Amino acid sequence: MDHTEKHGGLLTLAAVAPFLAVLPVLGLVVLALQGAGDHWSHIMGYVLPDALRQTAILLAGTAALTAVVGVGTAWLVTSFAFPWRRLLEWALLLPLAMPTYIVAYSYLDVLHPVGPVQSMLRFILGITEVRGLILPDIRSMTGCILVMGFVLYPYVYVTTRAALLMQSAEAIEAARGLGAGGLTLFRRVTLPIAAPALGVGLGLAMLEVVADIGASEFLGIRTMTVAVYVTWTTRGSVEGAAQIALAMLVITFGLLALERGMARRRDRGGGAGERQPLRVPLRGWAAWVACAACMIPVTLGFLIPVLHLVVNATIRVAEFGLPQALAGWIWNSALLAALATVGTILVGFLLAFCHRHVGGIWATAFLRVSSIGYALPGTVLALGLLGPMAWFDDLVATMLGWLGIHAGLLLSGSAGALVLAYMLRFLTIPVNTLEAGYGRIPYSVDDAARGLGAPDRALAWRLHVPLLTPAGAAAALLVLIDCMKELPATLLLRPLNVDTLATALYAEASRGTYEDGAVAALAIVLVGLVPVILLVRGLRPHQAKRRRDALQAAVVTG
Amino acid sequence: MRLIRRPLLLGAAMLAGFAALVPASPAVAAGEVNLYTTREQGLIQPLLDGFTKATGIKVNTVFMNAGLAERVAAEGARSPADVLMTVDVGSLVELDERNLTQRINSLAVQAAMPSWFRDTSANWVPLTLRARVIVVSKDRVADKAMTYEQLADPKWKGRVCIRSGNHPYNTALWGAMIAKKGAPTTEAYLAALRGNLARRAAGGDRDISRDIMAGLCDVGVTNSYYIGLMLAGRGGAEQKKWAEAVRVIMPTFSDGSGTHANLSGASVARHAPNVANATKLIEYLLSPEAQKMYAEGNFEHPVLATAALHPIVAGFGALKVDSTSLLAVARNRAGASQMVDRVGFDN
Q1: How does residue B18 score in pLDDT terms, banded at 50, 70 and 90?
Q2: What angle do CA B266, B272, B275 make, to 5 degrees?
Q3: Looking at domain A1-21+322-558, does it have CATH number 3.30.43.10?
Q4: Of A113, A494, A513, which is closest to B216 when you measure between CB atoms?
Q5: What is the DSSP letter of B201?
Q6: Do A389 and B201 lie within an 8 Å CB cutoff?
Q7: What is the predicted ipTM?
Q8: How many C-beta atoms lie closer than 10 Å to residue B338's C-beta?
Q9: Contacts of A306 (CB under 8 A, 6+ apart)
């Protein structure tokens, strides 16, 4: 208790995050209370059974696919040496940069009976009639699971890989010394070490699935989120939509708590290693199998849709030149995403540090509550934010009015609304990633530093920050790219005359000519590539040495 | 100090970056007008540029999707929005009914209103008509005329393609049918139509033509301007081939009343800071010049009776607009959407 009281200031500062995070939920509650709830019998009778079933199948299928692909590839690139490993190590992150709905559009183009793949197949088989060859339609549950799985597996890959990079060589080598090899090592040592990170990555990917509207609606899958959207837009019942969204939020939060409970039991701990285990060189066919296993997700999740976009962008650019506004879109996207990322990581670190250092029920509650935004679809979060932001803006403008200053809408009328929405939506990423990262740092390290008289700030900046760099960098990358891709909240909350890459792409996609937006889509990918490359370079082994040096320096000089 | 200094530095950098994004112009500005719209950017920008060229008034825009009404409502009296431009009669009526609009005081606007427009409110105006038409395979279907009701005929079993039954384009069509024939008949119709679908009710209107070309289906429902855009090559060479595979039928309801047409339209926001400029923008959008741009740029049917159709659109045949009350259509859309769920139209 004394400990908590001593850090009252820190806790109070951290309390701002959960306060802001619940604002959109409060906004939704206010909306929901205005409705009578008379649509519930309809929803329960005709919408819920099927929407729940479809949501559950979609989640289960995508979870299985992202887990297998994400953990499998992370394990391969961290544990083995094989051809093109260094290239694949970062290429595996690439599907992150692709908006899911654009991948869905691309695949329908590529795989449609009149598209290139089936046309080629018919040509090879000598079939002249389009209807002479009937293959499964991508507009199906299986198609949706495949699209989502191969776009979202990097969430699992990036978190698991970060955890595996932090694992200690001693554990692996001891197991090897005891005769464990290959799959046994994977199952008995690597998987338990990676489990918390896998849980985090899987959780993020699943929430992306739940929040998605574009891809699933396009492919004909009616999830709960689609039901919210239809209730709001088609039936004109924003109150009803808010009620369903809140009910979904309760279920989602319950599932997350359940997952967390299981994760805690799974977590076998294990400290951060002083050095990384050596990668086992693979030879012969095994090397090429590993290489191919990493190539497949990159090809399906990135290369094929991007190739399709490149072809279309080339045709457009040859005809019309580059869009004149492109530089502006890139600037707006990069600036908004960078601001939101810096803010999100700082707040996330503050929360995680409080949880670690101060502890107690409040710090834990702050951590959990601050993550709530990710459980809301972007469009619903934005809807919930409208009310509280308007209230705040009105208050500010009224107070400025007393001073004789004529002011407009401070937040809603500026990019502040967007930065706030991005931060609330994605705060869970650094919160969970850093929490998992802290799990790898033994408390004995903190005790040693404190024993040597290191003040809190030295503990935070000189010890934890260097040790958490891999986890923090992974979180920053995810947040940055997520912000650049974010569409529904951006559309609803952006100020006058602000276009981003995502909205420019959507402007074309909404007309049915998303190929015209190919240039913007490729720009998202290219701008997203920069941090990917920086991240991977930053996570190379020499970094481990720097972290170790930081640890020693902090303990010695602390 | 270091714990404090670094966040401060970062905070200052964030504020600086933030300031770069705050709009330079206040809500009220002489020579400017602020537009909130759910219409597609690429379609509307040429019209806005034409307006600026003609009047010297700069148009500031937010292009959005869902939530236009909620945003304007939340912003309240300080909202910078002057003109609200949306598609679908339901959204236009909703803005009006939520008291987010004001009367448009303009003789020029009144004079431009077509005779069929009998809206009881003077708070919104239609700008274009969007006909919901039937397309059939040129190769495999001989029919030259069809009613919407005939889509549910057993002869089309496994041959019909349509987007989500809950899409506003479709709920407005079902809403018109409810107004004509009552709810039970419409629900039975939807169930029968569901039984005729060749694939999931999903995707967009352009996919209908592509799926007909591929032989996945023989008949489908689409807004006519998509066919115009594709035939004109606006969607690229591939899409031109899709549209060339289909024939457009201007359908009627079985009472022969005409083709269902939805609207795009505009209102002046209730708290518009620049009302005069807002009125000027709406007057411009109804001018012969702008109506011609609508017809030629987007292949929609202009509301101005004197404006010419694009030759491609004229080639679809004359549009006789179904006379069902638009307000009735708007009011029926929620009920229509529930029917879609009950018959499992999208499942």
Answers
A1: low
A2: 80
A3: no
A4: A113
A5: S
A6: no
A7: 0.86
A8: 22
A9: A98, A522, A525
Q: So where are chain B's domains? A: 22-127+263-305, 129-260+319-342
CA distance A324 to chain B (A): 13
pTM metric for this prediction? 0.88
Separation of alpha carbons A326 and A508, rounded Å: 14
Residue of A nearest to B66 (CA): A233
Contact A335 B40 (CB under 8 A): no
**Chain A contacts in chain B segment 53-92 (CB below 8 A):** 60-67, 70-71, 74-76, 78-80, 90
Query: Is it true that B22-127+263-305 and B129-260+319-342 share their CATH fold?
Result: yes
CA A521 to chain CA mean position, Å: 18
Q: CA A19 to CA A377: how far, in whole Å?
A: 19
Query: Which of A389, A458, A491 is facing B64, going by the closest CB pair?
Result: A491
Q: Return the SS3 of A4.
A: helix
- Distance (Å, whole) CA B43 – CA B226: 12
Q: Given this model, what pLDDT does residue A548 score? A: 56
Class of domain B22-127+263-305: alpha beta
In the numeric block, the tokens 């045709």 are attached to: A315
A425-451 tens-digit pLDDT: 999 999 988 988 888 788 888 888 888
Grouping H, G, I as helix, E, B as strand and the rest as coil, residue B160 is strand
- Nearest chain B residue to A396 by CA: give it: B78
CA distance B147 to B258: 9
Structural tokens at position B301 = 């049917």
